[in-house]
Amino acid sequence: MSQLKLITFDLDNTLWPVDTVIRRANAVCDQWLAEHHPEAARAMPPEQLARWREQAVRDNPSLLSNLTALRKTVLMRGFEAAGYRHDEAQRLANEAFAVFHDARNQVQLFPGARQLLEALAEHYIIGALTNGNADLEKIGLGHLFAFHHSSESVGQRKPAPDMFHAALKSADVNAGSALHVGDHPHEDVHAARSHGLHAVWANLLEQPWPDSLPPHQHQIRQLDELPGLLHSFDPSQPVTPDA
Fold first, then answer.
1. Which whole-number Å values give the CA distances from 114 to 110, 143, 173, in the listed order?
2. What is the pTM of this model?
3. Helix, strand or coil for residue 214?
């Protein structure tokens, strides 16, 4: 059996749990607004931010593939609602986003994540594929990844093929020699297999597999289980897309 050459990882909820991170980052940003721009903070209660977000996506659906631009757009709307001119609102939105993003990258890795990446990086090309806007350099993992593609950098979210194709091009490998590891049944596992890659479901949060998808046999509940599965994938055999 020939060997896999490329292993790509989703990030949020695959290498670290993200929900508490986002809640904390939102709270840090809210506190910064309250301290530095209280009039803007009053103009941006959570329910109003949610309405502006929905409106921004209706006006420009491509923002769903660029969460950074989406958040900045909503923040700018908030500063404008507080009476700031457009240019000043844009500058302050960038500042507020920087506060949020610094906190957003203060993650707590799942047990064994760093050790797994360090071990795999000695034998495989390691890449990151994410719909989010995490910064691997800020997190301290950037040196372990040969590349990092996101929906922002390629212009389309998973499950679209763009990110997977970008990974194969970056690594200069064919799809059968690549394995994608991710937590999302549709956007990671089903999508990877649909585009010819092998896939492992990283179910570290113990979520149910959706009834709408055929069962997937390769699942891990802890990251240190992944090396034991790698022998299961034969690059010489084409991946049959799930029905």
1. 9, 11, 25
2. 0.94
3. coil
Establish if 241 belongs to a structural domain.
no
**Res. 1 pLDDT band, cuts 50 70 90:** very low
Residue 237 covered by a domain: no
Is residue 108 classed exposed, middle or buried when 0-12, 13-18 and 19+ CB atoms within 10 A define those classes? exposed
Joined tokens for residue 222 = 């802890």
Domain that holds residue 161: 6-17+109-232
> Which residue type does 229 have?
L
Task: State how far the Cα of 30 lies from the Cα of 48, in Å rounded to an integer.
Answer: 13
Looking up residue 83, the CATH number of its domain turns out to be 1.20.120.1600
Beta strands across the sheet bearing 198-202: 147-150, 125-130, 6-9, 178-182, 198-202, 219-220
Per cent of the chain over pLDDT 90 is: 95
C-beta separation of 39 from 47 below 8 A: no
Q: Give the C-alpha distances (Å, rounded to integers) separating 2 from 179, 227, 234, 236.
A: 13, 16, 6, 7
